[in-house]
Design goal:
158 residues; mainly beta; 4 domains; two-stranded antiparallel sheet; two-stranded antiparallel ribbon; 18 strands; rod-shaped
Amino acid sequence: GFRQVTGSTECAPECDVEVADCGNGTCIGPNRCSCEEGFVFENHRCIPQCDPTCINGLCTGPNNCTCNEGFKQDTLHPNICVPVCTSLCHNGACVAPNTCQCLPGYHQSNTVPNSCEPSCDPKYVDVRNGHCISLNVLQCNEGFVLEYSPLSGLIHYL
């Protein structure tokens, strides 16, 4: 309903906070709010609006995203929160907080966290006396050279 304004003969609309909480807005009729710019009336109250919608974050003010834990604002798109990896994802991409996904041709390193190492397929390259430096590219240990075997199709050491 309405209530009388103190010290006046005028009446003002009343908004019950359980029905229409007009914080960040004004009560304009019985349980009806007019929200301030940047806010919309939703779930019985004026809430901040972010356009575009926050991704991996929460809209905490008009067009202001606060990122979820483990995420940070993208430098080019402030409404997008991107995952954070505490160490760089070498040869991969940070796809979730502290989670690297390796690029094709790479696999997760067993020794360096959040690092991806190149893969050398043993069907094509004999890796026993060298180490893989790129996808199916081997660097020989000292004293060894690679040779291609047309019979097996395998590159092996001499």
